[in-house]
Amino acid sequence: MKILYDLIYLEKERHGGISRMWTEYFKEIFRSNLKVSFLSKSQVSNTTQSYLKSVNYYNNMIIYESSYSSDFLMKISQLNFFRNILLMLKIPNNIDIFHSTGYANPLIKRNNLKIVTTIHDMVFWDQKSNMAKGVSYWDNVWGIQHSLRISDRVVTVSNASKKSIIKHFPWAEEKIDVIYHGLPEDFLNIDVQMNKEKYFMFIGGRNEYKNYDLLLRSFSLFTKEYPEWKLCVVGQNNHTVEIENKRYSELDISDKVDDYGLVDQNVMIGLIQKATAVVIPSLNEGFNFPLIEGMACGAPVLSSNIPVSQEIGKDYVKYFNNNEQSLLRLMKDVSENSTSYNKLEQARNYARTFNWNNSYKKLMKVYNSCI
């Protein structure tokens, strides 16, 4: 079985949940005897690419694409439609399975090639009213729809995402497999610490559907009664930092927000362990890494009541509606009434059931079903 991975998504994201997913999958592949190759650009600033380069791509074949000197041509080369055409020329004839990390697939598939596509979420449909309808939006809409049609199997990361795909494309139901994400090994052996500090924690980017501003508005109300508390923020925000600083000033919380940006995994674990709660205000998620990371590190988790959070978090998480008062009530409750050690331990043990070895075994079953 020869598998080609198109690393297109990693050209668009320096760091994030999807990059972490592929890093963990590639670590498992390194331990196996799979024959794999990669389609990539030589100059990409991404955590998964850095890892692959550090292990010399496991001494496997790399098909390098042309790099473009102008920003315009670079942006064009990342469009799914452009890559749909390019992939017809780039995929070698001896490849059995093509697996796209994004939503780009060959415009036309040859007979002896099987295609697997991972679709993490349906945010471009579920949250379309909140999205700017530019070229990138419509390109992703096209890419997902084309991927669903041409793929032999579609992998998604939760039953909530599967239901969303079926809602919009009911004809795709029979080809969808659900494979949960796992946790890195560093998260699987953490003790619960009860000496929590006076801060709430947010983990992730600041895309519209992350609903970060709801947390800011709720926290600004919270600090009027609890002025000594802080908000700890971790995650990439290169393109939004100025907007965020302005918003902090408007809400009079500039001195109460500690923004760490991207941090090493061990630093993030330490911050989560001491947090009074991890807060997840998202409007939409495919999976929910911060939710299981918070539980694995022994932190209480407060999440918006979106379907995937309730699916993954079960009764181990406290849920709020999409408004300030609902979140504020939970923030006050968790600040005044500490969660018991037993409850945090139960949540931690449950989170440990999400591991990448299990995820990888399920992915291998998907591949084998194609051959």
Can I get a quick summary?
The protein has 371 residues and is of the alpha/beta class.
What attributes does this structure have?
371 residues; alpha/beta; Rossmann fold; 2 domains; seven-stranded parallel sheet; six-stranded parallel sheet; 13 strands
Number of domains: 2
Helix fraction? Answer: 40-55%
Note the beta-strand portion.
15-25%
Order of helices and strands: EHHEHEHHEEHHEHEEHEHEHEHEHEHHH
- Architecture per CATH nomenclature, i.e. the level-2 architecture of the largest domain: 3-Layer(aba) Sandwich
- Gross geometry: globular
Number of strands: 13
Radius of gyration: 21 Å
Structural commentary:
- This protein is α/β, with parallel strands linked by helices and 371 residues long.
- The protein has two domains: 2-182 and 355-370, Rossmann fold; 185-351, Rossmann fold, CATH 3.40.50.
- It is 44% helix and 16% strand.
- The protein has a seven-stranded parallel β-sheet, with helices on both faces.
- Helix 2 packs parallel to helix 3.
- The termini are close together.
